[in-house]
Amino acid sequence: MKQRTWLSLLLACVLLLVASACGASGQNGGSAPGKQETAGEGEQPAKLRDVQLMLDWSANTNHTGLYAAKELGYYEEEGLNVQIVQPGSGGTDAMVASGNVPFGISYQEGVTLARTQGLPLVSIAAIIQHNTSGFAAPKDRGIQKASDFEGKSYGGWGSPIEEAVMKSIMEIDGADVNKVNIVNIGDADYFTAVKRDIDFAWIYYAWTGIEAQLRGEPLDMIYVKDYSEQLDYYTPVIVTNEKLIADDPELVKAFMRATSKGYQYAIDHPEDAAALLSKAVPDLDAELVLESQKWLSPRYQDDSPRWGEQKAEVWSGYADWMFERKLLEKELDAERAFTNEFLPDK
C-alpha cells in the first residue's frame, strides 16, 4: 500500500489529455440505477447496470467496504453490477477524470494535484477519517521522533512531497532534512528494504504496521498527522468526475448508498467483513486481513457524524500546505474538490 508515485500522477495527467477525446464511454451505458425489481413468474430479472470501480492499488482493508457491498448484494439492490478492477498503466485518476471509468479510489493529494491542473476529478467520500500513514522504522534503529531521521537512510518512491513532509516535521523538531540520506527504492518491499538498504520508510500502519506485528518485527511509527493538522488529510478517497455528477447524479447516489452500507457493515462487523474480503481476494493473507480489519474498522468513521463525510478545512489545509511548499502551481478551490452530496443520511 505505497503512496501513489509522483511520476505516475504526471503521466496520468498527460494520458488524460489523450483519453478525454474518447468521451465518457462506459459511464452512461446500461439500465438506469435504482432498486432492482422483482421479476414476476416467467419473467426475466430486471437487468443490472454494469459499473466499474478502479482501485488505487492491490486489494486491501482500505477497500473492504467495497467488497462487502458487492458480496452482500448491496450494489445489486441498487440495480448495479459493480466490477472492482485493478488500476491500469495510465492511473486511476486519469481514467476516472476522463470518464472511461465512473468511480475510483484515489488520495487527497492526487485529487488536489489533478484539480489544480484543470482535471474534473471530485472526491465523493473519505474512506478513512484521519491519516493513518507515517514514517516507520524497525525498533533497533532508534527512530522515535522526526529529529531522529538525521543521519539515517530513508527509502522512498521519488516524489518531491516526501522530502517536503520530512522537512516540515523535522523543522518542528529543530532538525535538518539535508542530513537524511534519501534513497529511491521504488516498489521494493518494506521488510526487505529495511534489512538491506534503508532505516525507515513511509507506510500505512493498517497494513504494513500490522504485518510487522504478525512477523514479530516491531517498529516505531511516526504519524505525520501528529505533527501538523494540515497533514491530517484524507487518504484514500472515492472519486468520480464532474460530468457524471452533472449528467447522472442518480447513478452516483445509488453507488454511494450501497458503498456506505458496505463500509457500515465493515465498521459494525470487522471479523465478518474481513472474511468477505479474504473470500473475494483469496490471494491475500487471511490472518493479516483479519488483524488489519480489526485495527482499521473503528477508524473508518472515527469522530465523524457519518462514514465518508469530508470537511472543507481538511481539503484547504493540505492544499495550502502544498502550495506554500511549491508543490502546486496554483491554489486549490477546495469547495469544488469534494462533495458530501451523495452520502446517505445517517
UniProtKB/TrEMBL annotation:
Keywords: Signal. It comes from the Bacteria. The keyword rRNA-binding does not apply. This is ABC-type nitrate/sulfonate/bicarbonate transport system substrate-binding protein. Transmembrane segments: none annotated. Residues 60-273 form the SsuA/THI5-like domain. Residues 1-24 form the signal peptide.
